Amino acid sequence: QNTAQVAVVSAAPVPVNGINMSEMMNLMITMMIMVMMMKMMAGAFTSS
């Protein structure tokens, strides 16, 4: 959760006009990876 909050805070102040498509793709990929990791952690905790 801490890493997700840091990522959101670091990505928030960036102006929309300054964002490239590659940066947007990288941001979406990192967000999806974080969500998948959170789901895996939640699944491991609930199953055990």
Gyration radius, rounded? 14 Å
> Can you give the helix content as a percent range?
over 70%
**Tally of strands:** 0
Mean pLDDT: 73
Tally of helical runs: 2
Overall morphology: rod-shaped
The biggest beta sheet, please? none
Provide the β-strand percentage band: under 5%
Which stretches of 5+ consecutive residues score pLDDT under 50?
none
SSE topology string: HH
Structural class: mainly alpha
> Span between N and C termini?
20 Å
Keywords: Membrane, Transmembrane, Transmembrane helix
Transmembrane segments: 24-45
Question: What would you say this structure looks like, in words?
Answer:
- Keywords: Membrane, Transmembrane, Transmembrane helix.
- The chain crosses the membrane at residues 24-45.
- With 48 residues, this protein is mainly alpha-helical.
- It has a domain at 21-47.
- The chain has 2 helices and no strands.
- It is rod-shaped.
